[in-house]
């Protein structure tokens, strides 16, 4: 999994609602502290969608993305998940 | 307010839809637009536009591309490889690459300069928030002006306009505050001016500044001149109109000062902030006009539909209205207004709306500022395109010539499965890489070229600033890619058609000797070079001829002093105290400097046609002062003695039908329009009155003595130190006029400066000729180098068999010399024919002549022979052992 894929799943997993590309790009930019090009994000979302890690719904003909159970599982396997837990453990 | 009007760059949108998958188009466009709007709100419009472009370009990746032919050709994984191979080839063949890059860079720098010029012009009036909806009304007869009542008529009678405003050039004279004086030129403007345009006031309230009579909005510069650091708002100035030339500014035209009264400053505008086709020092409230009309200070044209020479009318369309609807309204208005089809001036007249953003690049008659007409850009673009084409020819020539060295590579690629399309793409990638490298060098050349261009005399009037904005950089890159494609297209198709079996069996040798295209291109290059060389020589000779031209009057040691409304006799009396002054005369216009007035005359009581003459208002000393000979009769008498007396030139006499000059003395002629009866008091020798470029033949001239019209004093001085004498003249001037500055010019320098435009043309053409010959010689050098390299073994065998160096050099040069000769045979007649077309338009002209042709041919031959000789001589001197042992 690439850094961006991982970050996308991370951001989606924190949301209770579905996110548009623009909203996701803004969160990613903040999270990764760098400009996320929309084309790059689109491509990543396509790839995640193909692997059924994220789901898509349409609101006013515009795509909204959410993380799937498979996506959560995949992300939980990732080291970042552990890092997040380690950090929480350290804070707790 | 401006943010609301911002929209994503249309060119970027179009580009996106060109390649984006259709199923993604709506989604992606929507997201990009959303992001754009957000950036406009949070950052700036320019930042948002740049971001939009970056985002669009980033979509150029396989997943987003529409499936089509292009995608079948381009294997994206190979793009990096193509660029790498291209770069390796450039590095491997350094000499050829250097020739290609240098030639392309030279030509590209000129094209980039033109891109900068166009970008500069595009910046005009882009700051108006409602620019998309603002139109200037023009006339079908190419006038930029329209009748004054048009603005109100559109607004009141039709529903298309949200707002209209009219600008009438009017105030052009002296503004005086206490002891401070400043030239001031501007428009009468309505309060709607500020709601239509986005000019903002530094001080004052734009909504009310132009409401009351005798109020004015002045420029920051004028405010500083009149009031220094004080706050100008509420302060007054006295204004005297002198009818100075405005909006186009030429010095010297004017009239005696007429006081318009006292004006109150209600606003100050910083004009330096705006790049607009409208420039002015002052906007006087249009409400002042009725008072001035009543006082007979200005003429009443507020409701004149048949007078359309001065007012500029602007319309702001309603948001839901189109320009077609505006045109319909204007057509209806013209039909209703100009029902009198007998009036020659207004018959078939139409109003044509011109978009604000298109005004600067589409100069109309009596427009508001100096700028290059479209034909000027077309001329420059043609010149630059020709030069660019010659540079592309070099690339094509050298690439095709080197075809054999790449044949094996092409064969191997085809055998391993490459399609022709991908080979074409590979070669195009190489040419684009070469072109992009040339772009870097061209940018360096541009750094030298741009200041030189800005230094041209013409730029004093055209005022190009040549900005380097992000958009311009984008245009440069796009241009370089385009040039890469143009230069590489033929070699790409040519090389990609090779049969792999033949290339691998080395059977392409049979194609040697097929130099048709290469020869044609080389010959074309030299024809172009020869044409530019001879044209540059010819224009330079024409310039020299103009500089030495005998106008028929003496200009040496004459100082022309602008009277600026001062009484001539008063000034004349003051100058009598300066011993170096040997003569003084007065005139309304300085001859041969571009301005003229006319009068039509004929013998009274005859059915003869009126003859058009140029009229000069002078005093009785004018002819003597300028050493113009009186052929018959006497000099002009003082106005009081004979108000209807005139002098006529010899040409005027002929046109009037007099055979003998003495017969004309005392005869009466009738003036058209005024029906005055004028008496011929004398006849003088013809002199050149018009600017030389405009002179078709000696124009008939009439002299009259009307002191009220005098604008200049011609002061003849006898001194070894002219500047010291000028100081004395200035001292005398200051004694009688403490307000106006002393304005003078030496007559000979004044006339010489009229030829500066021609000198600029010489410089431009000389430079273009230099580029053309440099690029052609680079191409020739490449071809000569390649040919000698390929024939190294042949030369070795010939030398071993006893051939002499000279014979080998001749053998190698023969082909190139034939091309040069062919170029001369085509180029000389072509240059003669084309140059004679413009020469014939001038009466005062040089002839093309054999000298020009020979000089051009010698320059071409010398440079050509040096270029060819450098390679052939080297090859002929080489030791045959080295060439033969190499295989």
How is this structure best summarized?
Helices cover 63% and strands 13% of the residues of chain A. With 92 residues, chain A is α+β, with helices and mostly antiparallel strands. The model of chain A has no long low-confidence stretch (mean pLDDT 82).
Word description of this protein:
The complex is a heterodimer of chains A (92) and B (887). Chain A has 92 residues and is α+β, with helices and mostly antiparallel strands. Chain A contains 5 helices and 2 strands, in the order αααββαα. In chain A, strand 1 and strand 2 (62-67) form a beta hairpin. With 887 residues, chain B is an alpha+beta fold. Chain B has 4 domains: 1-67; 131-358, no CATH class; 516-548 and 756-885, no CATH class; 558-753, no CATH class. Chain B contains 30 helices and 21 strands. In chain B, strand 2 and strand 3 (180-189) form a beta hairpin. Chain B is globular, with a radius of gyration of 35 Å. Chain B starts with a helix and ends with a helix. The mean pLDDT of chain B is 85.
